[in-house]
Specification:
By secondary structure, the chain is an alpha/beta fold. The protein has one domain: Rossmann fold. It is 42% helix and 19% strand. The chain is built from 5 helices and 5 strands. The chain has a 5-stranded parallel β-sheet, with helices on both faces. Helix 3 links the parallel strand 3 and strand 4. Helix 1 packs across helix 5 and helix 2 runs parallel beside helix 3. The longest helix is centred in the last third of the chain and has 14 residues. The two termini are 22 Å apart. 33% of the residues are buried. The C terminus is likely disordered.
């Protein structure tokens, strides 16, 4: 399984990336959602799942999830939300191909979720929101 992680919180990004790699999960980490979206579109081999922040500079998580789902509808996307993001995320119409993950995210939880996302990868439709 190959996972793409995007977070503009660099300490969180580095901790998640290191923890997932230590657990044997192949992952690439990006702090820019725009760069990550390009990497997703052109990476070979491709990514089977994506975990990203809900709020990011340059492109928010839901918009990035829509782009990824347009490129690869079968790729599950999970967005990490702060407490204050939970209400606004629930109010978004047609969330479109992503699932919410409340912060903070422990390495143990991230590893379990990454493996679960890998199990869903390649399905005909994204994980229901």
């Amino acid at each position: 399984m190959r996972l793409l992680i995007i977070s503009n919180d660099k300490p969180q990004l580095e901790a998640l990336s290191a923890g997932l790699k230590a657990a044997g999960i192949d992952c690439a980490a990006y702090s820019s959602p725009v760069s990550a979206t390009f990497a997703f579109a052109f990476a070979r081999p491709g990514f089977q799942a994506v975990i990203a922040d809900f709020r990011m500079q340059g492109m928010n998580g839901p918009d990035m999830a829509r782009v990824i789902n347009n490129i690869s509808p079968e790729t599950p996307v999970m967005l990490m939300l702060d407490h204050e993001d939970l209400k606004s995320a629930g109010d978004m119409p047609g969330r479109g191909g992503w699932t919410a993950l409340p912060k903070p995210v422990s390495i143990k939880k991230a590893t379990a979720i990454a493996r679960l996302l890998g199990d869903f990868s390649g399905m005909a439709a994204p994980i229901p929101a």
